[in-house]
Write a structure and sequence with these properties.
697 residues, alpha+beta, 5-stranded antiparallel sheet, 30 strands
């Protein structure tokens, strides 16, 4: 294939240094029997400071094409390296002929040789890596090659199965498309509400959803000026307490028991927009209410807002808001909105009588709306508003102070959430590399990028929600069931406290890097059945032929940290930009560090909560980033480092993840979120402390 040359240069300090020396050449010459067969310029060494350096030059066979016949008959080839720079001295050189069969071994040796000078266990080396990560000079983003590509918005995915409902579905679609079509004046001007006696579920079509009473929709700039914008779709799932349902099984509707949804805009301040009310709440264990909110309800000042929040509550304390969601509606979304309405109408058993009743109800709504518009029977704005508000009287039931506190939990768009929303792809975690020049299998890298491009939703969980719920146990059960069901690859779950995202549970995809930082004092129990250490160092044994195992997916590491309670300087700091990083350094027992070094940045907002009881860091490296370096290795050493004084490694666990473990691993991650709410006293204490010291929020 070619010849590899290794040259050791000594750059010396010179009293009369001249920058013109940078232009002087350093050359490598090859000869056979005193006859020159090739001369190549190495480089100017301009970026090298005073010190000793090793340079590797690879010369492919094609560079000797004219002298190939001489090479075939030659017993040896001579090499000279020389430089015209007065401040540079060649102290040593060597060469090696590289054949095709030598490429894997040569590449591995080259990687190891480039890092042999480093003190792998030194703090200086770890700090160097973290500084490089800050500058972004040695981080790998596995989707970097695809960032400029805009992916199509996924279509709505239906969840119902239709057997004898096919014709009903066709009829419903035909009827609803009379008001939901591109350019529809009905969709832009008319408020609509739909009731369904079915259980709520998280839909990938509604990007912004919440397991609680408040949900936030992030807005693009100058939304009001976009003529294709139609309005919002707001979705609320209700659940009635079983005991109350049992004691009130008459099946009738009760007067003055309603669902109210208040809309607020978020910009420089929180502003009330409008209130929507449903029909009286029916006596059903579960029900879904869908609101279509037209753009006519909003004003031009929406252009200056970053979000719209929907705050839901009921006048019946025995009916909980189980889940809520919101979505921007454009002309292109109206057909999908129709499919959502149809799916809810046809959810449940195939009861022809019930389907006919649903069809009749929707038909009356559509006919009434079309007849009103065609007959020019518009109600005044005052009359229309009074039908759906009642804000001043009904808010006596729920204190304004509590509502404003819940609204304060809404924060401007998180960068990762915004990127996910814009690209409809899972945000990947960059990983530190010792060298950006280490080759990877491009097919794995491309596969990782494609795997992350899937339709998914943002599920919002606020830590304060259980403090204001009527039935805590029912809310916890709903949380546990939802996480168990939705911790697959379609949901990006964020946990926020006091309006700040303190942890993001992203969909776990085995082909991509992954990080999770979470307020918890112990590593996940699932890890403890594998490799464990009570120090910051752990050695794991590698099975034979690991890199050839098609079921091996990657390496997962889980670390628990404690925080010194006496580190008052950390807790009380007013520096809003403060952050520190944790690092997972990997190396072989021979002392060669692996190219990949997972890292995670912890901001002040996260640390303020993590301080209460410690935290864990879960990191994962896909197998394609490790394949070349773990070949024929029998063990792997893991070292943990962090930059923050007072933060100490308590325990360290690791596991080699295989395909058959992936789903169990996902469920183990989801349990983090559930366990967070096992001690509400800590949450309540933190909220109370923050209310007393708002400057620290």
């Amino acid at each position: 294939m070619g010849i590899a040359i290794f040259v050791v240069f000594q750059v010396m300090e010179h009293d009369n240094f001249d920058e013109g020396w940078y232009a002087k050449e350093t050359t490598c010459e090859f000869s056979i029997a005193d006859c020159c067969v090739g001369q190549f310029v190495i480089e100017s060494l301009k970026n090298f400071g005073v010190g000793s350096y090793v340079v590797c030059i690879y010369v492919p066979q094609r560079m000797f094409a004219k002298e190939l016949k001489q090479l075939n008959y030659a017993s040896h080839i001579q090499t000279w390296v020389s430089t015209d720079r007065p401040d540079v001295e060649v102290t040593m050189c060597g060469k090696h002929v590289v054949y095709y069969k030598d490429v894997p071994e040569f590449t591995q040796n080259l990687i190891q040789t480039s890092k042999e000078h480093q003190q792998l266990s030194s703090l200086e080396h770890y700090m160097y890596l973290l500084n490089q990560a800050r500058r972004g000079e040695s981080s790998l983003d596995i989707k970097r090659l695809h960032q400029s590509k805009r992916f199509p918005i996924p279509r709505y995915e239906g969840f119902t199965t239709t057997h004898l409902t096919s014709q009903v579905r066709i009829n419903l679609r035909s009827m609803l498309l009379r008001i939901f079509f591109k350019g529809s004046c009905y969709a832009r001007n008319e408020f609509l509400v739909f009731h369904f006696p079915v259980q709520a579920y998280v839909s990938s079509w509604l990007f912004h959803q919440s397991l609680g009473r408040i949900v936030v929709c992030y807005l693009p700039r100058n939304l009001f000026d976009d003529k294709s914008w139609v309005g919002f779709c707001v979705y609320v799932g209700l659940k009635m307490h079983p005991s109350y349902l049992h004691n009130n099984n008459s099946g009738s509707e009760t007067d003055h028991e309603f669902l109210y949804v208040h809309l607020y805009s978020h910009g420089n301040m929180i502003s009330y927009v409008t209130t929507m009310s449903s029909f009286p709440i029916s006596q059903n264990s579960h029900q879904v209410v869908l609101f279509h909110v037209p753009r006519v309800r909003f004003r031009e000042k929406l252009n200056q807002c970053w979000g719209i929040s929907a705050l839901s509550w009921t006048t019946n304390p025995h009916v909980e808001v189980e889940i809520c969601g919101i979505r921007l509606i454009y002309d292109r979304d109206l057909e999908n909105e129709v499919e959502v309405i149809i799916d809810f109408s046809l959810s449940g058993p195939d009861d022809e009588h019930r389907h006919q009743l649903n069809y009749q109800s929707l038909s009356e709504l559509v006919d009434g709306l079309v007849g009103k518009v065609e007959g020019d029977e518009h109600k005044t704005r005052k009359e229309e508003t009074s039908m759906h508000t009642g804000f001043s009287s009904e808010m006596k039931y729920k204190s304004l102070q509590e509502s404003m506190y819940l609204l304060s939990m809404a924060q401007p768009v998180d960068k990762q959430v915004f990127a996910a929303y814009e690209q409809f792809s899972i945000p990947s975690d960059p990983i530190i590399l010792h060298s950006m020049n280490v080759p990877f299998d491009s097919s794995y890298q491309l596969s990782a990028s494609i795997d992350s491009i899937i339709p998914f939703s943002h599920l919002q969980i606020t830590a304060e929600t259980p403090l204001y719920t009527n039935n805590l146990e029912m809310w916890k059960t709903n949380l546990q069931d939802s996480l168990k069901q939705y911790c697959c690859s379609k949901f990006y779950i964020t946990l926020s406290l006091k309006g700040h995202i303190i942890s993001a549970l992203k969909p776990f995809i085995p082909s991509t890097t992954y990080n999770l930082c979470f307020p918890r004092t112990e590593t996940l129990k699932w890890f403890k059945q594998n490799y464990h250490s009570n120090t910051q160092r752990l050695v794991i044994k590698l099975p034979q032929n690991l890199t050839a195992d098609i079921n091996w997916r990657g390496l997962a590491v889980c670390v628990s940290f404690s925080v010194d309670d006496h580190q008052s300087a950390i807790r009380e700091t007013e520096d809003l930009d403060i952050s520190f990083r944790v690092l997972c350094h990997l190396n072989t027992v021979q002392g060669h560090c692996l190219n990949s070094a997972p890292s995670f940045r912890i901001s002040k907002d996260k640390f303020k909560w993590l301080y209460v009881g410690g935290f864990i860091w879960l990191t994962y490296v896909p197998h394609w980033l490790l394949l070349g370096e773990l070949n024929e290795q029998s063990s792997l050493e893991i070292n943990i480092y962090n930059e923050c004084p007072g933060v100490t490694t308590q325990s360290l666990d690791a596991i080699l993840l295989y395909q058959q473990d992936v789903e169990e691993f996902r469920q183990s991650i989801a349990q983090c979120m559930t366990s967070f709410f096992s001690n509400l006293d800590l949450i309540r204490q933190y909220v109370d402390d923050e209310n007393k010291n708002p400057s620290h929020a």
